[in-house]
Amino acid sequence: MDATALVMCCAVTCALLPGCRHPDPGPELQVVGESTRLRTGDPIPARSPFFDGTKVTLVAARGETLGLQVLHRGGGPVELKLPGATGYEVKRVHVRQASTELYGGGRGAGDYADELVPAAVPATDPAYFTIAADATAQGELVVGGRHVPVSLTVEPVALPPLPLDVWAYYDPRELGGTLEAPNDAERACIAMFAAHGVLLSPDLPPAAWAARKALVPTHWVPAVIDSGDDVRAWLAQAPDREVFAIPIDEPRTPEARAKVVALAKQVREAGGGAGAGSGAAAGSGGSFLYAVTDEPRPDYGDLVDLYISPKGAHLTGDAHRRWTYNGKPPEAGAMVVDAVDPALRTWGWIAYRYRIPVWYVWDALYWHDRHNRKKEPPRALDATRDATSFDDGDDHGNLDGVLALPGCHPTLRLEALRRGYEDRALLQLAEACHPAETAALAAKLIPRALGDAKGAAAWPADEEAWEAARRELLGLAQCR
Length: 480
Prior knowledge:
Layout: H1 3-16, E1 29-33, E2 56-62, E3 65-72, E4 78-81, E5 85-95, E6 110-118, E7 127-132, E8 137-143, E9 146-158, E10 166-168, H2 184-194, E11 198-200, H3 209-212, E12 220-223, H4 228-237, E13 242-245, H5 254-269, E14 287-292, E15 306-308, E16 322-325, H6 345-354, E17 359-361, E18 388-391, E19 396-398, E20 404-405, E21 409-410, H7 412-433, H8 435-445, H9 463-476
Parallel strand pairs: 2-9, 10-11, 10-17, 12-13, 13-14, 14-15, 15-16, 16-17
Antiparallel strand pairs: 1-3, 3-7, 4-8, 5-6, 5-7, 8-9, 18-19, 20-21
């Protein structure tokens, strides 16, 4: 029996059974945000916080970027006639099997909407648009011969440009460059990530600083060191920056932690240590911070300046400076493409609630699985056929370490990350006007995360709850 006959057979069988119903595929046309990601064949959400079936209603701060997916069964050209709108076709990536628990698990096999390719009039389903909000405006969405009114209201709130409070590591070889000679492809990709609030940068040896300095406009600088001599070189070359290095990644054994301590002593002897940058907030002076991707342990004494770990951050009782990295539920939303929504949108809210200065991403352009193919040419990523980016034989992640696809095309997941960090910027503006109400709203949406997490993810999965909270922030950010 071929596939068509099988479907017809099942349909007839269902029709003959009392109470048997076909799954509701949802509406023919729907508008959702950037943190909703659907597989081919997934039901279309019945409700939208933006579209009531007759009109699209948008609200934003001046300077904010909104992202909208237009779900229209069957595809065809889509046009958004609104000032500040930019269109993208959305390409799908193929997940063969769900990401494993190391990456937070996954929703399973299928073709997921993710890769974004610029197109003035996209014809994919979904189509995607960003809207740079500048002034209140009226327009229309044209899809399948249907003309849908669109209104954008810009509130009297100005959102400043996003600071680069996310660091995404990458290997320059993925873009044909070297540490000491960044090329035009790297510069363009770095600029694209910066527009999303992300510093895209390798960790740098001292010899690369002269070539890379203009591409790292942050107060903090990711470095790589082998000895105390490298620390001295960094202190001499970047006296006004806060340089940090993670020489030993995820030390899981007593032997690895002993190596952390030994190298930390070399760093101190060379003049490293928290210095002017110590405390909860970065100082204006320079220093060299010795970091470890681990939580505080008695083994380390006071030799570690910076802990980068989901488990090391708590709402109360922190005695150490800490950042975090990557994420998986229930600590934070996951990076993989088959993660449960809203995934990366959670990062900005968690960063606000837990006062995380920098979120570290490993990796952003992991287009060759070098980590697991050390003795043979690394497998090149072809996400349209197989979205597995990391596979060690036991664990695999679908687009783990991939926030942009080859060609440095952005993804819906990168858009969701920006959405979360723009939410964080709104939280900071709202806090200045209404601190108690803002804190209560953040706690309602993110009751617990990072080191306080337990059980299932504590935040809502539906986009309506997140959009309602964002619109509440737009009101709180107006000091009345």
